[in-house]
C-alpha cells in the first residue's frame, strides 16, 4: 500500500493535502483496500461548510456503506464530479484521480490534530 | 443475530481460503471468505467463465425409512411425490401460520431415502422443527443431521461442465437441470447435482469432510484453462440477487409467506396436507396484502436491506435486498410493497439517508442466462 509522505492523515482513514489556503481531501489507500470495489460516492454541494470530524460524504462498496469524515473545518470549493460516473477511481488512484473535495481551511491550527505519516502507518494495518 | 458469544466454526477449506488470500468474515456462525480477487471481478468470472465456491456451511439432513416420502411431503410445500429417483426440488418449509421456516433443496434417492439441504444459519432451528413434525404422526423414519460431516462446493458458470468433466468418470451432460447422481471425483465418492445459486449453469458437489482440500484443489487445477477463480460470499450474494433467488433472512423470513414472495409455483395445494397449508389457503382467500417486487433505481443511489419504500408521503413497503448489480451494471433492489403498487412501471421512492430517491418497478429475474 502507498502512503505519500507529504500528506496528513486521520484515524478514520481520510487524507488531506494542504496547498496554501486550500486543501484536497479523500480516503487513503488503506481505506479503499478495506472497502473493496467502490460502486458509489455521494459528495456534498460546493459552498457547504463542515466542521472538523463532521460527516461530509458517503462511500459504498458492494457490501458496505461508510461515512467519510471531514479532517478539518472549512468550506467546499470544488468536488470531484468524475466520481459520479467512475467511483472505481477511488480504488485505482485514491490520492490523485480519486480525490473527493477541495476546501478552504477555516483554522490552520486544526492541522496540528492530524496524523503525520509515521503515526498513521501505525494504525493503517 | 444472537451469535456474538458462540465461537465461529471453520469449514474444512478454511486453510485453502487463507492460502488464496481470501478475506475472512463471520457469516451465520462461520468464518467464511467474503471475497478473494474482489466482488465485481468474481461475479463476472462466474457469469463469463467459471467459479468455485465453498458452501460447506450449508446443512445436510437425511430422511430414511418406510415413511420418508410421506414425512417429507408433509414437511414442505412443493410436491415431492412426483419426483423420480435422482431428481432435486426447490421448496419452502412452513410454520403452521404459513411463515417460512427455511427454503431448501430436496434430493430424492428413493421413496425411502431423501437428502434435505438447508441454510447454514438455520441448521439447529430447522432440525428442531423437523424433529417436532416427526412427533405429529406415526412416521417410521430415521432423521439425521449430517451437517458436521459433509462438505460442499459449488462450481458455477458457462465452463462448469467442461471443468468438472475432466475429473468425473461419467458423462456430466447426462445430468439434467435439477437432477443428481452419485459418482466418484478422482476416486472419492461424491454426490453431484446440476443445481446452483447463481443463475448460471453449474453443479453442487457433496462429499465427506476429509476429501475437501483435495477436491477443491483438483477442481481449481482442472478449471485453470477456463479461467476459474475462487468466489466468496460477496459475489455469491450478488449473483443470486441478479437471478432473483431468495436469501433467507432477507427476502423470505418467518414473517413472510411463499405466496407474497412470488413462490406460488412451489406451493402444491392439491397434493394433500402439508404443514402451513390451512393458513396459506386462508391468506390466499383473503387476498395478498403485499408482494415482493423488483425495482431499478432511476435516480442515483443504492438500495439496501431494510430501507423504506414510499409513494408520496405514504410508506408502502421495505427493501429486502439491494445492491449495485455487477453484471447488469445497475442499482437494483427487491422489496415488499402493498399489492396495489406491484405492477411493472410503477414509480416508487426509496428512502436513502433521509432522501426520497426515485425508482421504478421492473420484471424479475433481473438476469436470465442465454440457454
Note the main attributes of this structure.
heterodimer; A: 125 residues; OB fold (Dihydrolipoamide Acetyltransferase, E2P); 35% strand; globular; B: 371 residues; alpha+beta; Gyrase A, domain 2; Elongation Factor Tu (Ef-tu), domain 3; six-stranded mixed β-sheet; six-stranded antiparallel barrel; 20% helix
What's the SSE blueprint?
The complex is a heterodimer of chains A (125) and B (371).
Chain A: E1 8-9, E2 14-19, E3 22-27, H1 29-35, E4 38-42, E5 49-50, E6 55-61, E7 65-69, E8 74-79, H2 82-85, H3 89-92, E9 101-105, H4 117-123
Antiparallel strand pairs in A: 1-2, 2-3, 3-9, 4-6, 5-8, 6-7, 8-9
Chain B: E1 9-10, H1 14-19, E2 23-27, E3 30-35, H2 39-48, E4 51-54, E5 59-64, H3 68-75, E6 87-94, E7 100-110, E8 113-118, H4 123-134, E9 142-145, E10 150-156, H5 160-165, E11 180-185, E12 188-193, E13 202-208, H6 212-223, E14 229-231, H7 233-242, H8 277-286, E15 290-297, E16 308-311, E17 314-325, E18 330-338, E19 347-352, E20 355-362
Parallel strand pairs in B: 1-3, 4-14
Antiparallel strand pairs in B: 2-3, 4-10, 5-8, 5-9, 6-7, 7-8, 10-13, 11-12, 12-13, 15-18, 15-20, 16-17, 16-19, 17-18, 19-20
Helix pairs in contact in B: 2-7
Amino acid at each position: 500500500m502507498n502512503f505519500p509522505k507529504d500528506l496528513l492523515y486521520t484515524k478514520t482513514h481520510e487524507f488531506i493535502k494542504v496547498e496554501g489556503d486550500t486543501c484536497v481531501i479523500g480516503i487513503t489507500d488503506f481505506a479503499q483496500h478495506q472497502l473493496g470495489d467502490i460502486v458509489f460516492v455521494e459528495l456534498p454541494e460546493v459552498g457547504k461548510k463542515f466542521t472538523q470530524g463532521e460527516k461530509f460524504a458517503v462511500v459504498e462498496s458492494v457490501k458496505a456503506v461508510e461515512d467519510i469524515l471531514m479532517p478539518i473545518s472549512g468550506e467546499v470549493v470544488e468536488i470531484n464530479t468524475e466520481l459520479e460516473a467512475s467511483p472505481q477511481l477511488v480504488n485505482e488512484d485514491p490520492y490523485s484521480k480519486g480525490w473527493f473535495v477541495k476546501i478552504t481551511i477555516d483554522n490552520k491550527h486544526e492541522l496540528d490534530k492530524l496524523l503525520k505519516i509515521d503515526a498513521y502507518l501505525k494504525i493503517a494495518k | 443475530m444472537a451469535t456474538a458469544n458462540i465461537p465461529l466454526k471453520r469449514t474444512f477449506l478454511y486453510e485453502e481460503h487463507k492460502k488464496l488470500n481470501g478475506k475472512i468474515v463471520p457469516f451465520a456462525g462461520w468464518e467464511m471468505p467474503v471475497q478473494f480477487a474482489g466482488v465485481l471481478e468474481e461475479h463476472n468470472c462466474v457469469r463469463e467463465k467459471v467459479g468455485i465456491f465453498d458452501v460447506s456451511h450449508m446443512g445436510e439432513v437425511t430422511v430414511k425409512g418406510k415413511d420418508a416420502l410421506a414425512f417429507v411431503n408433509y414437511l414442505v410445500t412443493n410436491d415431492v411425490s412426483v419426483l423420480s429417483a435422482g431428481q432435486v426440488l426447490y421448496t419452502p418449509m412452513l410454520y403452521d401460520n404459513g411463515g417460512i421456516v427455511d427454503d431448501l433443496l430436496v434430493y430424492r434417492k428413493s421413496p425411502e431415502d431423501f437428502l434435505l439441504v438447508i441454510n447454514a444459519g438455520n441448521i439447529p432451528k430447522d432440525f428442531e422443527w423437523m424433529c417436532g413434525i416427526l412427533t405429529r404422526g406415526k412416521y417410521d423414519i430415521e432423521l439425521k443431521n449430517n451437517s458436521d460431516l459433509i462438505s460442499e462446493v459449488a462450481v458455477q458458470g458457462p465452463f462448469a461442465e467442461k471443468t468438472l468433466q475432466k475429473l468425473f468418470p461419467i458423462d456430466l451432460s447426462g445430468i439434467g437441470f435439477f437432477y443428481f447422481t452419485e459418482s466418484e471425483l478422482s476416486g472419492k465418492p461424491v454426490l453431484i447435482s446440476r443445481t446452483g445459486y447463481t443463475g448460471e449453469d453449474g453443479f453442487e458437489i457433496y462429499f465427506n469432510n476429509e476429501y475437501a482440500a483435495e477436491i477443491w484443489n483438483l477442481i481449481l487445477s482442472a478449471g485453470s484453462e477456463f479461467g476459474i477463480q475462487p468466489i466468496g460470499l460477496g459475489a455469491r450474494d450478488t449473483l443470486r440477487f441478479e437471478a432473483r433467488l431468495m436469501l433467507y433472512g432477507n427476502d423470505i423470513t418467518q414473517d413472510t409467506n411463499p405466496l407474497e414472495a412470488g413462490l406460488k409455483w412451489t406451493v402444491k395445494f392439491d397434493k394433500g396436507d402439508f404443514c402451513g397449508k390451512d393458513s396459506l389457503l386462508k391468506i390466499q382467500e383473503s387476498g395478498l396484502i403485499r408482494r415482493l417486487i423488483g425495482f431499478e433505481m432511476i435516480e442515483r443511489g443504492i438500495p439496501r436491506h431494510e430501507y423504506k419504500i414510499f409513494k408520496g408521503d405514504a410508506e408502502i413497503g421495505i427493501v429486502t435486498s439491494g445492491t449495485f448489480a455487477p453484471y447488469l451494471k445497475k442499482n437494483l433492489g427487491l422489496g415488499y410493497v402493498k399489492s396495489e403498487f406491484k405492477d411493472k412501471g410503477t414509480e416508487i421512492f426509496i428512502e436513502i439517508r433521509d432522501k426520497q430517491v426515485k425508482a421504478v418497478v421492473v420484471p424479475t429475474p433481473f438476469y436470465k442466462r442465454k440457454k
